[in-house]
Amino acid sequence: MVSSSIIFSAVAALAVVQNVNAHGYMYIPLAEFEGTATSSWIVQIEPQWSGDWDSCSSDDSDCLTSVYTTLKSSNGYSDIRTLLDSDTDLYGADCGYTNPDATAKDPPTTGDATFSRGMVHVGPCEIWLDDTMVLSNDNCLTAYGDGTVDTKSVFTPVDYSSCSTSDCMLRFYWLAFQGVDSKMVWQVYKDCVPLTGPASGDSSSTSTTSTTATSTSSTTGNEATTSTSGDTTTTSSSTSDPTTASSTTTETSTRAPTTGGDSWTSTGSAMTTSSGDSWTSASQGKDNQGGKGWSGGFGGMGGGDAEVGNPP
Predict the structure, then answer these.
(1) HEC readout, 256-309
(2) How confident is the model at residue 247 (pLDDT cuts 50, 70, 90)?
């Protein structure tokens, strides 16, 4: 015959398991714990904003969300991290039960984060990467859960690109509303997960890429100049072959006494370069010491339930 004490113990154990399942922790990326792992809230306190909390039942998400958002605005808060980090004696230790010095985890490449089970309490939650908030919702039960503990809540989208390439800290906050003895209470959750950097394919830094271009230039020109010298006809051809570029130039100069000046015509001048070198050409006569040329270049109160051991 099975004793009543054994039956009572089995029922009590089942109640503990169900209570644990009603809570949760950051699963992907995985939070590690100081000592024994626990999925419970870190403090359970009465609402710190005076309002009509008790007019709502625990499963009335619309009523609770309306009360919360109204009081959040009237109390001057835009996020819950500011509130929950303002007093660790009241709202629980920084990072809760989790270990902020654990081995850094690689963030998921799927642009999301996963809770250890489904969220079943109404209330706001947030995810921060260092001091950048990357996810926020006033009712994470309806936004990321289906009302059961069996389907893990997936927070999406989460942009990990703001995480430094060296490391950053993921911080998860959840303020859950629960009815206890006909009174509404606040349950506070805080998880910390050190990350190795941004997700694969993301980057919080910029890089510069330099390229080398090859350019080809061809010029042909006819120009005439009149000055006051005598007449001379000069034809010259020059070829230069430097190490990194080659050029061939043919020029014809004609001096004719028009108004007592010089006439100079240059034709068929072409150059091709692939290295950004410059080319210079000049013409001068007996009285012309200048010449013409061209040059160019290109260049509180702990939770009551626990799980033993870290999760897989």
Answers:
(1) CCCCCCCECCCCCEEEECCCCCCCCCCCCCCCCCCCCCCCCCCCCCCCCCCCCC
(2) very low
CA dihedral for 32, 27, 138, 167, sign (positive or negative): positive
Q: How many Cβ atoms from other residues are within 10 Å of residue 139's Cβ?
A: 22
Provide the 8-state DSSP code for 201. Answer: T
Q: What is the 3-state secondary structure (H, E, C) of 206-274?
A: CCCCCCCCCCCCCCCCCCCCECCCCCCEEEEEEEECCCCCEEEEEEEEECCCCCCCCECCCCCEEEECC
- Answer whether the bond into residue 311 is a cis peptide, omega within 30°: no
- CB burial readout 223-235, b (16+ within 10 A) else e: eeeeeebeeeeee
28 vs 107: CA distance, rounded Å: 8
- Give the CA radius of gyration of the chain: 40
> Which pLDDT tens digit goes with each residue over 144-163?
988 899 999 999 999 999 99
The 3-state DSSP composition of the chain as helix, strand, coil percent (nearest 5) reads 15, 25, 60
Cis peptide before 124 (omega within 30 of 0): no
What DSSP letter does each residue of 59-100 carry, written as one string?
T-HHHHHHHHHHHHHHTT-S-HHHHHTS-HHHH--TTTTB-T
Closest to 174 measured CA to CA, from 222, 214, 140, 224? 140
Give the residue from 309, 308, 305 showing the smallest Cα distance to 40: 305
C-beta separation of 169 from 132 below 8 A: no
For the chain, which residues make up each domain, given as ranges? 17-195
With CA atoms as reference, report the closest residue to 83 among 94, 91, 73.
Answer: 91
Q: Rounded CA gap, 159 and 168, in Å?
A: 13
Q: What is the tens place of the pLDDT at every residue in 249-264?
A: 434 433 444 334 443 3
